[in-house]
Design goal:
Chain A: This is Acyl carrier protein. Chain A: It comes from Geomonas silvestris. Chain B: One of its GO terms (cellular component) is cytoplasm. The complex is a heterodimer of chains A (97) and B (331). Chain A is 46% helix and 3% strand. In chain A, helix 1 packs across helix 4. Chain A is built from 4 helices and 1 strand. Chain A is mainly α. Chain A has one domain: Non-ribosomal Peptide Synthetase Peptidyl Carrier Protein, Chain A (Orthogonal Bundle), CATH 1.10.1200. By secondary structure, chain B is of the alpha/beta class. Chain B folds into 2 domains: 185 residues, Rossmann fold, CATH 3.40.50; 59 residues, no CATH class. Chain B is 48% helix and 10% strand. In chain B, helix 2 packs across helix 8 and helix 11 packs across helix 13. The longest helix of chain B has 29 residues. The two termini of chain B are 36 Å apart. The chains are: A mainly alpha (97), B alpha/beta (331). Strand 1 of chain A pairs antiparallel with strand 6 of chain B.
Chain lengths: 97, 331
């Protein structure tokens, strides 16, 4: 199964009860109400675990995640780039008491 | 807006006396015509919304027909009880205090919560504090992500983005708080033959910032039509103590202090109010941006976020859905 087909399968199984309903590779998840904002979190967790990539906050944008085609392109670019791995913790300055 | 009415914060100004009178008349009408109970229970948090709701209920029905319910737990802010007591004294309403930590313990809340946090911060334990924060949508054209901020006993803080599973588990556990509080509100309402007043303001009601069958449950919601800015105007008119009116709005839900704009809303409430008002009245993002000192793109992002939240929280407002209409029901 190709990367694109795997992502389609995940979307259809997870968010559409297994019914593809004419979902195109360029259908907007958010605008067409296919995936809501919590669903995007689920998609991101799937991508990180399935493809062993780390997705940073700045990469959580519709251009990367809002359609099957965009997700596939994004995952390919992450796999090709060095430095994939687990998300890192960010130390904060303590709040005043 | 047309040229003679520039878009500004003044558009949210109301006559608090007229508005309070109108709401009180409506509370009495609804209680007499539909609710048919003898008084109202209001959960008091020490925040502005519950204080104004209690004040309006007391004004509409008489203070002796309003019960203020204080329901602290071990993560509640220290000042919450002091402020809610001050409001009750000011209004002259009776109160009952129900400490809910033992109930939360018995349903496994604290353990479930800590187990969920430990999925991302393995060293998290009793004595640590935490809260959820959002990435904020106006920093970039990002999709909202949630992070957990934890504070160790020595004060050191750490922030980690939450994966899907622990995020849902933390929110699900935390919702116990609102649901247990609502259960107690209805217990006292039933024993007194009262109804329950909900306390959402317009921002919260419109944007789905409530827990279904938790703080979202009520028999009437007297201030759900008021922008938060307007709630403050009515609060001043009703004589709500200044300390309550000047308190930063918090969720008072997590062990670390959490502003509503950290967790849910894209902007502080006064800016969110104007964006919501602008969107409701089809004001161009450019005009709203000029009034708020934001960029047009930022306001467009907030407009889009308002639509997204309306769509994704619509089910919170729905009654249970039936396959077929049952004939005796009203349209």
């Amino acid at each position: 199964m190709s990367l694109q087909e795997e992502i389609r399968q995940f979307i259809v199984d997870t968010f559409l009860f297994g019914e593809d309903g004419g979902l195109r590779d360029d259908s907007s998840f958010l605008q067409e109400g296919i995936v809501d904002s919590t669903g995007i979190l689920q998609l991101v967790s799937f991508l990180q675990e399935r493809y062993l990539i780390s997705i940073e906050d700045a990469e959580l944008i519709p251009d990367n995640l809002d359609s099957i085609g965009k997700v596939a392109t994004f995952v390919r670019s992450k796999q090709a780039a060095p430095g994939t791995g687990q998300a890192t913790a960010q130390a904060l300055v303590p709040e005043p008491a | 807006m047309n040229g003679s009415t520039p878009f500004s914060r003044h558009l949210l100004h109301l006559n608090p006396e007229l508005e309070a009178d109108r709401i009180c008349r409506r509370i009495r009408e609804l209680m007499l015509s539909q609710v048919k109970r003898r008084g109202l229970v209001v959960g008091l948090s020490g925040g502005i919304d519950s204080s104004v709701t209690a004040a309006l209920a007391a004004r509409a029905l008489g203070p002796e027909r309003v019960l203020g319910l204080e329901m602290p737990e071990r993560h509640s802010a220290e000042e919450s009880l002091r402020l809610s007591s001050s409001v009750a004294r000011t209004l002259g309403i009776p109160t009952v205090r129900e400490e809910i930590s033992a109930t939360l313990e018995s349903v496994g809340f604290y353990r479930k919560y800590e187990d969920a946090v430990r999925q991302v911060v393995p060293e998290y334990a009793s004595g640590w504090k935490s809260k959820i924060v959002t990435s904020g949508i106006t920093a970039s054209a990002s999709i909202t992500a949630f992070s957990i901020v934890v504070q160790a006993p020595d004060g050191a803080q750490l922030k980690m983005r939450l994966p899907f599973k622990p995020y849902l588990e933390i929110v699900a556990a935390t919702n116990f708080k609102q649901r247990i509080r609502k259960m107690l509100e209805y217990y006292h309402a039933d024993r007194l033959h009262y109804a329950v007043a909900g306390t959402p303001n317009r921002l919260e009601y419109d944007q789905g910032f409530f827990v279904k069958l938790g703080d979202g449950a009520a028999d009437l919601k007297p201030i759900a039509h008021l922008y938060k800015t307007q709630v403050y105007q009515v609060a001043e008119y009703l004589g709500i103590p200044e300390e309550v009116r000047s308190r930063r709005p918090t969720t008072d839900t997590y062990s670390l202090a959490q502003g509503q704009d950290e967790f849910y809303f894209a902007l502080p409430f006064d800016q969110m109010d104007l964006c919501l008002f602008g969107k409701n009245h089809e004001v161009a993002a450019r005009e709203v941006a000029a009034a708020l000192g934001l960029t047009e793109q930022q306001v467009e992002l907030v407009y889009r976020d308002i639509d997204v939240k309306r769509a994704t929280t619509r089910y919170l407002h729905l009654p249970p859905l039936l396959v077929d209409r049952v004939e005796w029901q009203e349209e």
